[in-house]
């Protein structure tokens, strides 16, 4: 179930991970991740088009702890800081074309289970699978977000702000 705190106790690095400051920031980030124009290979004409890729890497096949869900970010770190502060707060340096990585297996699992994101793969190296938004993503994810906010007893005023933030993230 979607939540604000996705930190985990990693045996190697300790208690770390993605934390959303509030449901409004959660909604903004979800709106951003729900719009396919933000994904690598898409040209949407916004400042954050062609900026991300969501992967599940089968690190357990390479001797690591297990599967790892990652958001790979390819755009300016300043834009990440300015528009998606909660992702920026947990980003680690990327390699090659990847500006930064945001690791959060549990959050990626919630995108799949709570918001109907889709798993595609395996990809070229057979250890990586892509995660993409569902078809008709705006309506599908928006409606799921509303259900989750209501089930968490979020006030109607906050839900209204969250739906606006979702649309703002979508339009980044």
Describe what this molecule looks like in 3D.
The protein has 172 residues and is α+β, with helices and mostly antiparallel strands. It has one domain (8-170). 37% of the residues lie in helices and 19% in strands. The chain has helices spanning 23-34, 77-83, 85-88, 105-115, 137-151, 156-170; strands at residues 8-10, 14-16, 52-57, 68-73, 92-93, 100-103, 118-120, 128-132. A hairpin with a 3-residue loop joins β1 (8-10) and β2.
- The computed structural class is alpha+beta
Task: Please give the order of strands in the largest beta sheet.
Answer: 5-6-4-3-8-7
Q: Give the mean pLDDT.
A: 89
Rg from alpha-carbon coordinates: 15 Å
Largest sheet: 6 strands, antiparallel
Order of helices and strands: EEHEEHHEEHEEHH
Low-confidence stretches: none
Shape type: globular
End-to-end distance, in Å?
26 Å
Strand content: 15-25%
Secondary structure: helix percent: 25-40%
